[in-house]
Design brief:
314 residues, flat, 16% strand, 6-stranded mixed beta sheet, alpha/beta, 3-stranded mixed beta sheet, 11 helices, 9 strands
């Protein structure tokens, strides 16, 4: 499977700068004004993993195929986006297509870069974005719920009643100002809810865009008011500088800054944990390949590998 992460946030928080750095490209227009990103930018990045290259050496593989991750840079959202403000619902729809949400929030200081709300407050940024996602979901759920209730006449079939119950659970969470993913659901509920493609059912992490030399004591999840999702601290400016260097130069630069891992490494690791993914390897003389798989599917991959080994032996 290919992991797809959608980068969202308010305008001018560093989304496009981060996207360009992660993908080592200039695909996204990173300018000092709101809505410089219109259509979403998509970049495919190889997942850095030394293990695949070590396996290739042992197997004397002719080809090495790392697994990859897709980043989608989505236009900035603003207060009222669910009602058409800013660039409106069109861009909320782009979020529905990704596996998980990377919400970028601003914690860096720069008087030359305009903040859309004229203040640097990560918790406030998050509350604005999450509210718009919640309101967008609430609108679509309310329409579905009202239609289902209206069509349910007389003796209600079990499957229709089950849908009403699931919709009521989602609706209650959203009306309470919570993301749909925070409510408790049965397996039957989930079968219904998955088909709704709700924005707030997607796993999410916060990427806090910090200064190059951040004060870590002031940037804990608790201090930032971001305790409901995984939090990753990244300097988009620093990552942009690293992206302009060769891989070897980048490693040397990181050592000089006492950095043990890049922003890309942090985000990928958090993304894998968020979605319950692991990397699985197959290796032989023709090729060594890395695969991204769900932890629960590992036994299936082991079975396939065992069968392939048997076929080679026979």
């Amino acid at each position: 499977m290919s992991l797809s992460l959608g980068i969202v946030g308010l305008p001018n928080v560093g989304k496009s700068t981060l996207f360009n750095a992660l993908t080592r490209s200039k695909l996204a227009d990173a300018q000092n004004y709101p809505f410089c990103t219109i259509e979403p930018n998509v970049g495919i990045v190889e997942v850095p993993d030394e293990r695949v290259h070590k396996l290739a050496i042992v197997s004397q593989s002719k080809k090495v195929i790392p697994t990859a991750i897709q980043f989608v840079d989505i236009a900035g959202l603003v207060k009222g986006a669910s009602e058409g403000a800013g660039l409106g619902n069109k861009f909320l729809s782009h979020i529905r297509e990704v596996d998980a949400i990377v919400q970028v929030v601003r914690a860096f200081s720069d008087n030359n870069i305009i903040h859309v709300n004229n203040k640097v407050d990560p918790a406030d940024d998050v509350s604005v974005i999450n509210l718009e996602l919640i309101l967008a979901d609430l609108e679509s759920i309310t329409k579905r719920y009202n239609k289902t209730k209206k069509d349910a006449k007389g003796v209600v079939p079990k499957e229709v009643q089950a849908e009403i119950v699931a919709l009521e659970k989602v609706k209650a969470a959203l009306e309470a100002g919570k993301r749909a993913i925070t409510a408790e659901y049965t397996e039957d509920d989930m079968l219904i809810i998955r088909d709704l493609h709700l924005l707030t059912m997607k796993p999410m992490m916060y990427v806090v865009n910090v200064d190059e030399t951040p004060n870590s004591e002031l940037l804990t999840p608790k201090a930032l008011g971001l305790s409901d999702c995984p939090v990753v601290l990244v300097s988009a400016k620093l990552e942009s500088e690293l992206a302009d260097l060769s891989l070897e130069e980048g490693k040397e630069y990181m050592v000089s800054l006492d950095m043990t891992e890049s922003g890309l490494d942090k985000i990928i690791r958090a993304g894998y944990e968020l979605l319950g993914l692991i990397t699985y390897f197959t290796s032989g003389e023709p090729e060594t390949r890395a695969w991204t798989v769900k932890k629960i599917h590992l036994r299936h991959w082991l079975l396939v590998s065992f069968i392939l080994i048997l076929l080679k032996v026979l």
